[in-house]
Amino acid sequence: MGFKVGIVGLPNVGKSTLFNALTRTAAAQAANFPFCTIEPNVGEVAVPDARLDKLAEIAKSKQVIPTRMTFVDIAGLVKGASKGEGLGNQFLANIRETDAIAHVLRCFEDGDVTHVEGRVDPVEDAETIETELMLADLESIEKRLQNIVRKVRGGDKEAIQQERLMQQAKALLEEGKPARLLEVANEDLKAWKMLQLLTAKPVLYVCNVAEDEAATGNAQSARVAEMAEAQGAAHVVISAKIEEEIAQLDPEEAGMFLQELGLEEAGLDRMIRAGYELLQLETYFTAGPKEARAWTIPKGTHAPQAAGVIHGDFERGFIRAETIAYDDYVSHGGEQAAKDAGKMRVEGKSYVVKDGDVLHFLFNA
Question: pTM for the complete prediction?
Fold first, then answer.
């Protein structure tokens, strides 16, 4: 399981440049005019994880298969999108299908790149997008409440639950607050997700800065960081231009280039790590002579459900999981040596998989 992040923002903030760089493709046209991205472009990237390469080396795996992250480059938003302005309706439909939203915010000055509002203010840009999403959610809720009136009167339990959740979300939205701030009880989580509210999605603010500010950020990105902290959102500082240049280099050249700029890692790595934390995801591994592979699961996943990510039969016929912690696997030089050292554990259905676990599942077909 990977995850899907919608890259959104006002026109000309660097969305398509970032998308092209991150996915190493020119599928999205990056041009200096609004709406150059008409259809949502989808690109998948491998999630870099040095642990997977190490496991493959030890297990002498023929194939190395990382988990994947999907980016969706969505058309630029303008004020009035919730009422169909610009490409509003299309934008809102595309964003519903994502797991999280990456707001690309312009934090750079460049007289050659026009800002749709004629000024550079990332916090105001973020508020513009958030407002449009809140207005769209309110409209959606009001329509749905009208549609389930009869079912609620008839005592339909599902409809009553939906109405309660929608009324709670509506109250928040009318206060100018996003739906993600609502505390949802465990028994309501499934119904809540089915509402597909735009402002219920986790948010990652991506501060697009000039090349010489990529390592330190600037005053504008500092304002975004403050806003993100207040909202309980995540943020990351990136230079889309640097990412575009890195995309053209081989790994060794890219490493040297980053070093010259005072950067420890590429923006892609920072975005993925921030996305994992935002969505509370983690990775477990399978390793053997045939392949070493990374699998993404939500934190707190039990062993049978983790097995189900590989194949539904693994979950249905789950018997037990043989588990070795990553550090033990590496320090002992592989599966058999870790077993001999007593570092392999046999876990049952109640086991909560931990980040970095190297797993082997036993199941009934």
Answer: 0.81
